[in-house]
Automatic annotation (TrEMBL):
Pfam families: Thioredoxin_4. Coiled coil: none annotated. Keywords: Disulfide bond, Membrane, Oxidoreductase, Redox-active center, Signal, Transmembrane, Transmembrane helix. This is DsbA family protein. The lineage of its organism: Bacteria, Bacillati, Bacillota, Bacilli, Bacillales.
């Protein structure tokens, strides 16, 4: 094979490789653009400016160790960079993957949100803070007494008789079931699941991907 043929062969191979890379990247971009259809998020606990251009939805389970980790490792950066700056708002949806304890915690959080929405997020964090470190997956720790103690620390002005009734007699079950329907409608498979302006992220702990998707959503709003 002479030198001209070698050069031509090399150019053709390089062009094929570039074309394959572009195809793969375009498929990835198409996947990123797949939208998740969410019903109304009205009357859901939401942190940040209600007029923020970007909506972040967290599907979380108070019994879930990964949700606790997300709240400690990812959420503070998200709040500093985008929520406190008015660029994004965060809505929390209860997931009930871990059975009765998940339900109890969700009932309690809905009760606090109903009675004292300003302290919802403090109570929300308080539940995750109370989650035992390195827990056995099935170890029981969510009880009415535990939830009352957390509420006394973070939402002390609520009516505690009503709070206990909401937990023990499922007084806020309708609100919890609204969340459960959203979980089923969107087909949530794991917690935490993060959705940004309708785009479900593959890895909720990849902050670079979260940041990129938010910035992309902001750019789209400005076009």
């Amino acid at each position: 094979m002479n030198n001209k043929k070698i050069v031509l062969f090399t150019v053709v191979i390089f062009a094929i490789i570039v074309a394959l890379v572009l195809v793969v990247n375009n498929k990835g971009q198409d996947k990123d653009q797949e939208k998740v259809s969410l019903n109304s998020l009205e009357n859901q606990p939401t942190l940040g400016n209600e007029d923020a251009p970007v909506t972040i939805v967290e599907f979380g389970d108070y019994k879930c160790p990964s949700c606790k980790a997300w709240g400690e490792r990812v959420f503070p950066k998200l709040q500093e960079d985008f929520i406190d700056t008015g660029k994004a708002k965060l809505t929390y949806i209860n997931v009930l993957f871990h059975g009765n304890e998940s339900v109890l915690a969700a009932l309690a959080s809905e009760s606090v949100f109903k009675q004292d929405p300003e302290n919802f997020w403090a109570f929300h964090k308080g539940i995750y803070d109370a989650q035992p470190s390195n827990q056995n997956h099935d170890e029981e720790w969510v009880t009415t007494d535990t939830l009352v103690e957390i509420a006394k620390a973070y939402a002390p002005n609520i009516d505690f008789d009503e709070f206990k009734k909401d937990i023990n007699e499922k007084g806020t079950l309708d609100e919890v079931m609204i969340d459960d329907k959203l979980v089923k409608d969107v087909n949530i498979q794991f917690t935490p699941t993060i959705i940004i302006n309708g785009v479900m992220l593959d890895d909720p702990f990849d902050y670079d991907a979260i940041k990129a998707q938010i910035e992309k959503s902001l750019d789209n709003k400005n076009e």
